[in-house]
Amino acid sequence: MRVGLVQMTSGEEVSANLDAAIAGLREASVGGAQFVLTPEVTNVLSSSRKVQEALISHEEECEFLLALRAEAKALGVWVLLGSLAVKTHDPDGRFANRSFLISPLGDITARYDKIHMFDVRIDDRESYRESSHYRPGDRAVVAETDFASIGMTICYDLRFPRLYRELAQKGAQILTVPSAFSPVTGAAHWETLLRARAIETGCYVLAPAQCGQNTEKRSTYGHSLVVAPWGEVLADGGTEPGVTLVDLDLDDVEQARARVPSLTHDRKFEGP
Ligand SMILES: O=C(O)CNC(=O)[C@H](CS)NC(=O)CCC(=O)C(=O)O
What is the mean pLDDT of residues 137-154? Predict the structure, then answer.
């Protein structure tokens, strides 16, 4: 089956982000993709709580979500809406960073709220405090489709291998990692971490990414990646917006795991 990864530069203009996402879905579908994926915070990327407050809605009222569901249905493709920032009923008024799997009928098949928050000071000039804007999730999700089981994760989750191991051990064949990686950590860690998750689990790893200058203050690494269960990088989306098409063979999941069955070799141990 063919997948399409949409790489884009979402910023603070929701309608422009929507146009880019829909154009990406259409381009991927024309290119033969049956499963199309968009990056983290497809709908709005902003460091300002005030701007987010004005632009983000509750899931039930989210027109961005409705528009993408309609587009999935019109094209008859599966869509992983990598994430949307949506309002929640959190007492502190925080948003959720929520991934949606949408069926070719336009229905929401699964939702996943990002579990691990990027509260990191990279250097003197660059620090992030995601948990002050977003309420972390607390549920791992394996979604069932008619082509594969999908373990849903988001961006910084990538650094917590136990989550991926459990998703794979619960049946995931494809792991999704929609992201908005920082340029500095992206250059140092992105490909290595994605390849490690694929090799450890024997899963396909699909990682659609934000790229370029998203806002005055934020830029992102790009390099949407598809990694095979044996660990090869099958495609790299580079640094510009665009669509990356790749054919997956899900038999390769079984094959990689048959060659090195480490996923079934966990042992209990004491300590440290
Ligand atoms: O801010 C938003 O609206 C959406 N959230 C993000 O973009 C998040 C938190 S700032 N980005 C990451 O998790 C990057 C992780 C990363 O770069 C790493 O692990 O090195």
Answer: 98
